[in-house]
Amino acid sequence: MSDDIAKDSAQGSSRSTVNNHQQQSPPPALLSRYESQKRRDWNTFGQYLKNQRPPVALSQCNSSHVLDFLRYLDQFGKTKVHHYGCVFFGQPDPPAPCTCPLRQAWGSLDALIGRLRAAYEEHGGSPGNNPFGNGAIRVYLREVRECQAKARGIVYKKKKRRKNQTILTVGVGEAKSSAKPLPA
Ligand SMILES: [Zn+2]
């Protein structure tokens, strides 16, 4: 009796050793991380413009649409930005949770604008008219940086070089994945 059981389990195990040694090789990298992130960002922004009431054509897009887009993204943010009144204001590493809002980190927004600015021109937009290069955007980003630096007790160092070395994938990717109809 015990032999039968042994045989059964042996067969069972031999059946399960059908092992395909197929290596899951990643697809050839057609696009760099920067390029694919840029493409995703561009699609997200295009979708955002389409979802406006009434929809905004790319040719009509100006810096205020871009600013609205950045504020819209804040709801998907993961960076705690403390209010002045919060006991953890200015603490980089608070010991306890608080009710302050989560926002898009300045670095994510800054990198995002850089990618969208490039994408805009790649899609035929004229550099002189680029809404992402508008002074209003720079002012907004500077304000966000200063506000977050104070609230989070962090000093940001902005690199002079335009090369995107640290690609922050935070932000728009999240916005895209949760691009369900939002409760009005
Ligand atoms: Zn707080």
TrEMBL record:
Q: Which family does it belong to?
A: Belongs to the plant homeotic and developmental regulators ALOG protein family.
GO terms (molecular function) for this protein are: DNA binding
Q: Which residues form the signal peptide?
A: none
What is the official name of this protein in its record?
ALOG domain-containing protein
Question: Pfam families, per this entry?
Answer: ALOG_dom
Cellular location of this protein?
A: Nucleus
Listed under GO biological process in this entry are: mRNA transcription; response to light stimulus
Q: Which InterPro entries match?
A: ALOG, ALOG_dom
Q: Which key words tag this protein in UniProt?
A: Developmental protein, DNA-binding, Nucleus, Transcription, Transcription regulation
Q: Which PANTHER family match?
A: PROTEIN G1-LIKE2, PROTEIN LIGHT-DEPENDENT SHORT HYPOCOTYLS 9
- Segments carrying the region annotation (Disordered) are 1-34
Ranked from the top, the taxonomy reads: Eukaryota, Viridiplantae, Streptophyta, Embryophyta, Tracheophyta
Query: Which PROSITE patterns does the UniProt record give?
Result: ALOG (PS51697)
Organism name = Hibiscus trionum
Domain ALOG: where? Answer: 33-160
UniProt biased composition (Polar residues): 10-24
Q: Name one GO cellular component term.
A: nucleus
